[in-house]
Amino acid sequence: MAVAGALPAEWIKNWEKSGKSEFLQLCRTLSENKSHENVTFRDIQQALYELANHVVKGNLKHDQASNVLSDVIEFRDDMSSILADVFCVLDIETSCLEEKSKRDHFTQLVLACLYLVSDTVLKERLDPETLESLGLIKQSQQFNQKSVKIKTKLFYKQQKFNLLREENEGYAKLIAELGQDLSGNITSDLILENIKSLIGCFNLDPNRVLDIILEVYECRPEYDDFFVPLIESYMYMCEPQTLCHILGFKFKFYQEPNGETPSSLYRVAAVLLQHNLIDLEDLYVHLLPVDNAILEEHKREIVEAKQIVRKLTMVVLSSEKTEEKEKEKDKEEEKTEKPPDNQKLGLLEALLKVGDWQHAQSIMDQMPPFYATSHKPIAIALCQLVHVTIEPLYRRVGVPKGAKGSPISNLQNKRAPKQAESFEDLRKEVFNMLCYLGPHLSHDPILFAKVVRLGKAFMKEVGTSKKLNSEDRMVKFQSDGNKQEEKEKMEILFSCLLNITDQVLLPSLTLMDCNACMSEELWGMFKTFPYQYRYRLYGQWKNETYNSHPLLVKVKAQTIDRAKYIMKRLTKENVKPSGRQIGKLSHSNPTILFDYILSQIQKYDNLITPVVDSLKYLTSLNYDVLAYCIIEALANPEKERMKHDDTTISSWLQSLASFCGAVFRKYPIELAGLLQYVANQLKAGKSFDLLILKEVVQKMAGIEITEEMTMEQLEAMTGGEQLKAEGGYFGQIRNTKKSSQRLKDALLDHDLALPLCLLMAQQRNGVIFQEGGEKHLKLVGKLYDQCHDTLVQFGGFLASNLSTEDYIKRVPSIDVLCNEFHTPHDAAFFLSRPMYAHHISSKYDELKKAEKGNKQQHKVHKYITSCELVMAPVHDAVISLHLPKVWDDISPQFYATFWSLTMYDLAVPHNSYDREVNKLKVQMKAIDDNQEMPPNKKKKEKERCTALQDKLLEEEKKQLEHVQRVLQRLKLEKDNWLLAKSTKNETITKFLQLCIFPRCIFSAIDAVYCAHFVELVHQQKTPNFSTLLCYDRVFSDIIYTVASCTENEASRYGRFLCCMLETVTRWHSDRNIYEKECGNYPGFLTILRATGFDGGNKADQLDYENFRHVVHKWHYKLTKASVHCLETGEYTHIRNILIVLTKILPWYPKVLNLGQALERRVHKICQEEKEKRPDLYALAMGYSGQLKSRKPYMVPENEFHHKDPPARNAVAATVQNGPGGAGLPASLTINAAKLEESTAEETDKLKEKTQGAVKVINKAANATPKVTTSNGNSASNSKIIKEKDEKEKSGKEKDKEKKEKTPAAIPEAKALGKDGKDKPKEERANKDDKTREIKEKTPKSDKEKEKAKKEEKTPKEEKSKTVVTNAESKFAAEKEREKEPSREKDVAKDMKSKENIKGGEKLSVAGSLKSPVPRSETSESEREQKRRKVDTHSSPSHSSTVKDSLSELKDSSAKHYINHTVPALSKSKEREVEKKDLDKSRERSREREKKDEKDRKERKRDHSNSDREVPQDSTKRRKEENGTTGSSKHSKSESPSDSPHSNEKEKEKNKSKSSGKEKGDSIKTEKMEKSSSGSKKESRHDKEKTEKKEKRDSAGGKEEKKHHKSSDKHR
């Protein structure tokens, strides 16, 4: 202590002057400060100490100090005691000091103050030595001895009562007093006085008396109110510990090995504890067993439980089983010696019974969790306490309507826990009690039910309060605080309820013996929780709860054991009994059971059906748990979702998905969790789990997604809902109404419908660019397909199940979908399409109601109005989806119309409707014939069939009306569809790129739709739409599209091509159909103008025969692409092309040689892939087999279009050598050569057949004269000359060459289009080399076949040679005539050479009609435009000739058909006729030369005039000439897109080139004329006929031709 702290040095120095008074003042103020008693006390102590210390040090005299202290003593009552304390401290301090003077000062001070402090106090506090020196005691030693003796007597000596002095009478009287009838006015105070008297009188031992009081109390437990106050009063006379010790000794007595503590003793102890007469800590130490022993026992139980589990899970052999059983028996015998009671538990039970929850709780806290309640009596006692506590609240809110219930009487004990009146009270006490109960609530199912019902009532209250809150938004601000508090309270209570459910209710259900009612009762509360909470509870139940307690560990093992037993015996036959067993087991332990069942299903998928059927005995709670278990199994992170090959989805996932679908359909299980799981997986960029969604939608809604649909099913899918259900799916999926409603509700309630769609749409690309990173291409394709298919299926479900309002409310507009949600356009329109349809139909219905006009026109008008209302915003919205440039080619309206319509809108599947109606009729007949069926069932079935039939017919009628309305609408729209601001080529590009290709691979129905739409646009005569171009682009380059498809997309693309080919084949099959459906349609114009002029000039239209050539070209292109894909060796190329080929098999290959080429290539694939890639091998084998079966339906090339049969194998050969095997540069040459030959070949063939055939050849050859490609001439001229030489050779040689050259024709088709313009010279040079190459490449087998054929034909061919030469000379003559108008200087003697040249030109037509439509590049269209400009300015006169020739071409082909029917003449007659014809033709050709000279001059004059009319007679003449000569020079005609423009240039080129060759040509033609003089007569006769016909034809077309010419000029 700092001396200077309170007494400054100045005070001591000037003590007498001022120090004394200052000190007294300080002590006075300290004494008066009563506020901080402790502080004051310390401060006074310090002040006095410092004063005394100054005296000890000698700074102050002892008498001065004693004077001050005598004044200070009066300030406080306890001041002398404080002073004694100070002396005590100084005594110890000074006795330790060596300086004697200080000690002396201290003794003097104490002596001076003796009158202030009493002796007794000093004797207590000072050392005996000090006391002796002060003279207060005589001898310190004696003093010490005396104090020891007193302490011993006080604390250590026991006061023994002399039992002999006690008298029995006293105890007898005591017992009589305590045992008397207490019901009167006797109080404990009265008895206590008597007891005191007895103790005094009979000298009784007070402890013994207390013991007897306790004994009597034990025997009379009902008199708590008497004994408790008595003991309480009695205890005032005893030491506090006495009662505890006596009880302890009582408990000790029963702690022998077989001792059993009586419950009465426990009860007495409990009551005394409850009244706080003893402390639990004091009594607890007297009880056995000790806590450590309890802990050990608990651990031992856990170990035993684990051993039992291990035994149950181990596979035990039979010999071992018997040994095990014997060991177990021995163990049980050992256990029979019972350990002494657990007194702690006994006391605990008694405490619970008397309602002393506080003490009971503290005992339970000392023990391991749930150890106490695992003893049934304690659990039951605690349950009883809970019963009592919740009684009032349960009576108020928990009792179900109509239930009586048995009220529980309250505890008479005032100290028992307060009863719960509100949910808040529950939280304070009851929940705590339940937590201590844990799983052992199972002992009292009634209490279980009560707690659950309270939970239900609470959730109901929460629900109503939420509603009120939402309704009373406008309540005044002051109540906000209260509401907030209420809300917080509710939240706390809710979390407590969840806790209780987790820790008490579910574990208790586990221990209950298959109590289905409890399970249902619990579900009543659970269904009010959101699924997230429920699933969390199930998760904890399954994964944590079972490990928390030995009993639960055992139960888990037993459940698994039982589940194994049931599952081993589960089959389709015993579903019912097994199902009952499963149900029984599931009531208590669903999580464990389902976990095991699911693990079995994942391994053995054949268990799915029996398991699903056996689950019908489950409770609602169990179904919910099943849903959770499924999700947990799906989300199992340890399981691989792919098989080891990394190319297929694991079978466990597929099995689970299939199980999901079946189980969710059959039973009323909540779907929200599963759907949310799928959505979350998609958010995380994982699409594997879409498999589940796919299965669920398929099973629940009956919407199947399969690529293997037959065409009949597809057709049915384009009808109404009823037709879809009846004929659209493989399995007749019935009764999906309820399940699809459940699925719909789940999606709408949890707002998952649109998010799932958007996530799937986005994930499609995610599969490729994010998820697919390291994965095998095959798997990526599979995942993409799965994602896409599920989207289509899910969208289909929403479209058919959501109401218009729901749909429109949920699906945003198309621009928002695409721009904000980044949905791909195809998917966005797919989602929006039903919305438009719903919207239009509802608007239409509104308009119909508004005006009751029944006329068809009125209805159509209303329909169109409603379409405009709905679609106008869509037209505006789509503009943002593409660059502005796009809308130059196609209008937003066309784009929106294409994407918003479906097959339902375009055509009625009458066949499908009829098919289904007939099926029903057959069914009804079968029902009638069935004798065994009971009459009432017959009646029902027939009614069902009739109702269905009526529905279908009604639906068909409805669809028919709808389709008619839609077609009317399209008719009105079509003129604004294609704007033609750029070329038709561009328009088609955009149409294919943005409409057809994305949609045709979207779904099988969309594939069919695309093909139909193209045909529809054609049929509607849509301005600026070139059908030819469109089909050409579709068939020409399929390699890229095929290669970039997934497996399912390839299948859909195949369907699209199949439908396109079907249309083309229909047109190809019959001239009449072609003329009717394409003849006058703008889609088949061959002159492609940049403007929108689509005049129906016959000359501009592609005629039938040329169309057949074009179709052959398409078939060739398909072959070339297929072979290319098959040869790449790439997995996707091969797989996809095989899928596509399988799909288009009905319409391709139709030509025999193309079919053979394909067959060989596919056979090669079969051999190569057999070991490497079995899936490709299987595909190839499948296709190969189907292809062979189609062989009888294939036709030789010359039947497909005009071509001689020997060429069949040769084509195959080239194709086999690989596409374009002959090489491109020679293309034109070979092509021309081939065509030249084909003239001869056809003559051969036709001569065998009919006399009229010659005419055909002539006409066909003539038909094409002016439709040429730019260098057709030049390429062909020299070649023709050579060929004519070769034809003079023997028949065999000629045939060989034909074979070698024809194949080239097809591959060159492309080349002609793309390279033809640039390569006239090269081609001539390369011609011979190329033919040689082709010869080398032709496979021997083919050559051998061909030789055989040649040998058969040689005799015939020799006969026909004359005809050939004759035909050629005529052909040449005509060609020359057509050239004459533009070449004035030609002399008559050159005529024959010109004829040859012209022949060449005609031949080159082959190229022209195959020209390069397929090219989609913009450069192509620009080139066309430039060429057009050049053409129109440079040679106006020729544009007319081109048109003429086109019309001639048509006419001739028409005649060609007629001629086929002419009956055969005898060969001798034929020869005569031919000779005459030859002579006539020579004479006529000379006459014509003269006329043509005049014509030319006239034409020059015409050019100077603006009208540029062609003199009638000259055109007639020209037509006559055209009609008479030529052969089907067109045979390989190219698509007409370029030919009309290019032919003018070609003519100019031809003029320049031909002059050099004239001489050679003329020599050759003379030779030919000599050899063929015999055959002229016949053809002359024909010519006369055709001339007449052509005159008639040409008269109609003149006006238009003039118009064309003038427009050309101005352009």
Please give a structural write-up:
The structure is a single chain. With 1611 residues, the protein is mainly α. It is built from 72 helices and no strands. The model is unreliable at 473-478, 1090-1096, 1204-1469, 1504-1581, 1588-1592 and 1594-1611 (pLDDT under 50).
Which helices and strands appear, and what pairs or packs with what?
Blueprint: H1 9-13, H2 15-32, H3 37-57, H4 62-72, H5 79-96, H6 100-112, H7 119-125, H8 128-134, H9 140-156, H10 168-179, H11 188-202, H12 206-219, H13 224-235, H14 240-253, H15 263-274, H16 280-284, H17 291-313, H18 318-334, H19 343-354, H20 357-366, H21 376-398, H22 423-437, H23 445-471, H24 478-511, H25 516-526, H26 531-543, H27 550-569, H28 575-588, H29 590-603, H30 608-614, H31 620-634, H32 651-666, H33 672-683, H34 690-701, H35 711-717, H36 721-727, H37 737-749, H38 753-771, H39 777-801, H40 804-810, H41 814-820, H42 825-850, H43 856-878, H44 892-900, H45 903-906, H46 910-929, H47 935-973, H48 984-1000, H49 1004-1019, H50 1027-1036, H51 1038-1043, H52 1047-1069, H53 1071-1079, H54 1104-1128, H55 1131-1143, H56 1152-1172, H57 1174-1190, H58 1197-1200, H59 1207-1216, H60 1227-1249, H61 1253-1263, H62 1272-1288, H63 1291-1315, H64 1320-1337, H65 1340-1379, H66 1391-1408, H67 1418-1434, H68 1436-1459, H69 1467-1504, H70 1512-1524, H71 1539-1571, H72 1576-1610
Helix share bin: over 70%
Total strands: 0
Structural class: mainly alpha
Main beta-sheet strand count, sense and barrel state:
none
Rg calc: 56 Å
Query: What is the average of the pLDDT values?
Result: 75
